[in-house]
Specification:
Cobalt-precorrin-4 Transmethylase, domain 1; Methyltransferase, Cobalt-precorrin-4 Transmethylase, Domain 2; 5-stranded parallel β-sheet; 5-stranded mixed β-sheet; 11 helices; 18% strand; binds S-adenosylmethionine
Amino acid sequence: MDTPPLQAGLYIVATPIGNLGDLTKRAAEVLSACAVIACEDTRVTGKLLNHLGIKRPMRRYDDHASEEARERLLAEMCEKPVALVSDAGTPLISDPGYKLVRIARERGIPVTSLPGPSALVVALTLAGLPTDRFMFAGFLPSKDKARGDALTGLAAVPATLVFYETGPRLVDSLTAMAQIMPGREIAVARELTKLHEECRTGTAEDLAAHYTAHPPRGEIVLLAGPPPAPPAPEEADVDAALRAALADMSVSQAAGSVAKALGLDRKTLYARAMELK
Ligand code: SAM
């Protein structure tokens, strides 16, 4: 491939999560123009490069690499363009690269990130759950107690929760979700961008029953919609709060204060406070 020379530095390159057609033109250009490709597994990345007809030296790298290996890579990117890829998807998203980017930036080494596939974004855009606010929480712990603690810590977060999951652990996670975050809308997005892509939604209980009967294969993203809004307070409770506030506040202040505390409309409360006064 005939591509213009690249500047020295680190290039974060996202690669397909199942469908090779999802590799961007820019990703292919950078992979063919870089001097070195740092990757998690040279066999996995070697297959991708073969498919693209690209031959480049590869260096095995992950965040547990020795200080020495990381320093070698950092020294290389001061002199020439070095690409970082993971086995699939976007590096640094539950994949290696964080330490490398952090140190490269501290040292003033140019870092460029090429956008591309990531299972979390594909799942989120497919599941039909709210996307205005979401929290990606990586993999849940594998042990029951730690998984339960993690879910308990996240249950009140007012956002769609996104987890990476594995087939053998899916039912345990769904069962824990049914107990710890009951009533949530759950989605299981499986084998995204591949032949057997599936996105199934429902309650955690129903999905646990389904996947107990049909043990899931392949790669999985598990999502939980935001917690349900708390029930509106009873009229009598609102009146009691207004009366208490009116004891030492003006009508306007009392309406404002109770509206804020109970998450209600200030104008409506002002009208009610006028009646109660
Ligand atoms: N960095 C990758 C990304 O950007 O998506 C994720 C790497 S993480 C080690 C691997 C996990 O991502 C899998 O266990 C699975 O939870 C999720 N995943 C990756 N590819 C997927 C796919 N095609 N369908 C569903 N989930 C996928």
